[in-house]
Amino acid sequence: MSSITFGAQVPATRLRITARGRRVLAVLVALPIAGAIAFAVLSGGSALASGEGTAPASFTTVTVQPGDTLWSIAGEVAPKEDPRDVVAAISRLNLVDGGVIAVGQHLAIPAQYGAVGR
């Protein structure tokens, strides 16, 4: 007769993590954290851009006429100011790239300059 023993103990093995395993584990932990930081940085500016909590910007508008340039409009709306500063402010406010404007286009003029000559 052979004896069969039930409930034999299995020798316990100790879990050892190699240097490569530690690096993999560190990357797996760092990825969600880096993703959360990137999301916070990218969406954090939307609160500033939405204008919540800030006073509304005041400006007047000017319609571009044939022959008008940003320089001529700047000279008309703020004759006593440096035209370079006025052109830069108008370009920034209207997102005008390269100073290209079209006839009939409505340009916002910062309130500090106003539309004196128009």
Order of helices and strands: HEHHE
Low-confidence segments: none
Spatial gap, N to C terminus: 115 Å
Radius of gyration: 33 Å
What class would the helix/strand composition place it in?
Answer: mainly alpha
At CATH level 2, the architecture of the domain at 59-110 is Roll
Strand order of the largest sheet: 1-2
Please tell me about this protein's structure.
The chain has 118 residues and is mostly helical. It has a domain of 52 residues: Membrane-bound Lytic Murein Transglycosylase D, Chain A. Helices cover 44% and strands 8% of the residues. The chain has a two-stranded antiparallel sheet with strand order 1-2. The protein is rod-shaped.
Tag the structure with descriptive keywords.
single chain; mainly alpha; Membrane-bound Lytic Murein Transglycosylase D, Chain A; two-stranded antiparallel ribbon; 3 helices; 44% helix; 8% strand
Give a concise summary.
With 118 residues, the protein is mostly helical.
Task: Give me the secondary-structure topology.
Blueprint: H1 19-50, E1 59-63, H2 70-77, H3 83-94, E2 106-110
Antiparallel strand pairs: 1-2
Helix pairs in contact: 2-3
